[in-house]
Design goal:
Length: 394
C-alpha cells in the first residue's frame, strides 16, 4: 500500500491529557498569576471565574454547588465516595477500568457491606434497567478506556431515594448532561477542555449537600476529602468556602489560567452546544471510515452506547484474530509506534487492560479535518505491520 503524504495539523489524539484547543500556544498563559497566592484577591477571583464560567456554560442549576478539588477527577470522585457512601446500599456499576477502580475502593477500602457490584466487559454496558436508584449509584457517564457511554439519564428516577455519583470526566462538554438526574458530578480540566491535569471539578446537588450535613461516615477522612466542617455551635455544615474559590490545597495558577483559556474558547465557538456538535462530527468521520474498512471496527457494537470522545476500535481481520494473544498487543504497539514516529497520530494504542486495538480521542478540541487526515495512515500502518508479521512467521 502506498504511504500517504498528507498529515494532520495536530497529531495529538491522546485520551488524557487531551489535545489543546485549536491555535493554542504557551502565550495563552501570559496572564497567569504565577508567583501570586491563590488566596490573594486576584487569585481567588480567577478561581471563582473557573467555577462560575463552568456553571454558566454547562447550565448547572443555581442551587447546585460547584467546586475545584485536588487530584484531578479521581480526587473529586474519591472525596465524594468517602464523604457520602455508607448511609444506604450502593450499586457500583462499571464497564471500564475507572468504574472498576471505584468498585474496588468501595468493597476493598471502605468495605461497605451492602454493595451490588455490576460489571460489563469492554465494549458492553450493564443492563441499566436493573440499577436501583433508591440505592446510591456510582457510574461513569462515558467510559474513557472502553469507549462505552450511557445512552441517556432515563434510567435514573426523578423521585429516587439514593444519590447518583457520576464520573463525567470524558463526558462533560461532549454530552448534554441531565443535571436533575445527577447528585454528584466530577470531571477534570484535562479531557474535553484540553486543559492541564491535577485539578478536578465537583458538583453537588442540594440532595448531596443534605446528605453531607446529616450523615457522618464511620471512617476518618483525609484533609483533601473533607467537604464539611463544624460551625460555631458544633453542627456539621458544608464547607462552603470550597465552592467559593477557596481550594482545599494549593492549585497551579498556570493550570487555572489554561482552564480559563479553554473555557473562553468554548464560549468563542458557540458554547457547550457547539462543543457537543464538534464531538458528534468527529465520531461521524470515524464511523464513515469504519463502514468501509476491511480490518477496523468499533469495540462497542451498539451505536447507542458508543462514545464520541474516547473512540475505541478493535480489529475484525481474521488474520489478526488468529494471532497468538501474546502477539496482539505488541502488534498494536509496533503499529502505533510507527504512526508516532511519522508524527501522524500519537498515543492511540488501546488501554492496557482493554482488548488490543486503537483508542482515538474525538473530543471538542480535536479537528475533524485532522481525524480525516490520519485515516489513510491507519490503513497504511496496519498493512505495513501485517505484512511484516506474516513474513516473520513464514
Amino acid at each position: 500500500m502506498q504511504k500517504p503524504t498528507a498529515k494532520p495539523n495536530c497529531p495529538n489524539f491522546s485520551s488524557g491529557p487531551c489535545a489543546k484547543r485549536p491555535g493554542w500556544t504557551p502565550d495563552a498563559l501570559k496572564n497567569a498569576l504565577t508567583g501570586r497566592s491563590h488566596r490573594s484577591a486576584p487569585g481567588k477571583k480567577a478561581l471563582v471565574e473557573v467555577i462560575e464560567t463552568h456553571r454558566r456554560i454547562l447550565g448547572i442549576p443555581a442551587d447546585y454547588k460547584v467546586g475545584i478539588m485536588p487530584a484531578s477527577d479521581s480526587g473529586a470522585v474519591e472525596a465524594a465516595m468517602w464523604s457520602l457512601l455508607g448511609e444506604r446500599g450502593v450499586d457500583a456499576v462499571a464497564w471500564e477500568s475507572f468504574g472498576s477502580d471505584w468498585q474496588k475502593d468501595i468493597t476493598g477500602q471502605l468495605k461497605l457491606a451492602d454493595v451490588r457490584v455490576m460489571t460489563a466487559d469492554y465494549g458492553q454496558i450493564v443492563d441499566l434497567s436493573t440499577v436501583d436508584t433508591d440505592r446510591d449509584v456510582i457510574f461513569t457517564w462515558n467510559g474513557t478506556t472502553s469507549g462505552v457511554r450511557v445512552p441517556n439519564g432515563d434510567w435514573i428516577k426523578s423521585d429516587r431515594k439514593g444519590l447518583t455519583i457520576c464520573d463525567a470526566t470524558s463526558a462533560v462538554f461532549a454530552y448534554d448532561l441531565p443535571w436533575d438526574k445527577l447528585d454528584v458530578t466530577t470531571w477534570s480540566w484535562q479531557k474535553v477542555l484540553g486543559g492541564e491535569g491535577a485539578h478536578g471539578m465537583l458538583v453537588l446537588s442540594p440532595r448531596a449537600v443534605e446528605r453531607l450535613q446529616s450523615y457522618k461516615p464511620a471512617w476518618p477522612l483525609p484533609k483533601i476529602f473533607r467537604l464539611t466542617k463544624k460551625d460555631d455551635s458544633g453542627k456539621t455544615v458544608l464547607n462552603d468556602a470550597i465552592f467559593q474559590g477557596e481550594t482545599i490545597n494549593t492549585p497551579s495558577m498556570l493550570a487555572v489560567e489554561d482552564c480559563l483559556d479553554s473555557l473562553r474558547w468554548v464560549d468563542s465557538i458557540g458554547g457547550v452546544k457547539a462543543a457537543i456538535q464538534r464531538t458528534k462530527d468527529n465520531l461521524a468521520v470515524i464511523e464513515k471510515w469504519v463502514a468501509q474498512s476491511s480490518w477496523a471496527t468499533f469495540l462497542p457494537t451498539d451505536p447507542a452506547v458508543r462514545s464520541r470522545t474516547s473512540i475505541c476500535l478493535s480489529i475484525k481481520d481474521d488474520w489478526f484474530a488468529a494471532l497468538p494473544e501474546d502477539r496482539k498487543m505488541p502488534f498494536i504497539k509496533d503499529m502505533t509506534k510507527t504512526l508516532d514516529s511519522e508524527n501522524v497520530a500519537k498515543d492511540i494504542a488501546s488501554y492496557k487492560a482493554a482488548p488490543a486495538g486503537l483508542r482515538i480521542w474525538g473530543g471538542a478540541t480535536v479537528e475533524a479535518s485532522d481525524l480525516e487526515a490520519i485515516l489513510p495512515w491507519l490503513d497504511w500502518a496496519y498493512a505495513l505491520h501485517k505484512d511484516a508479521e506474516i513474513k516473520k512467521a513464514a
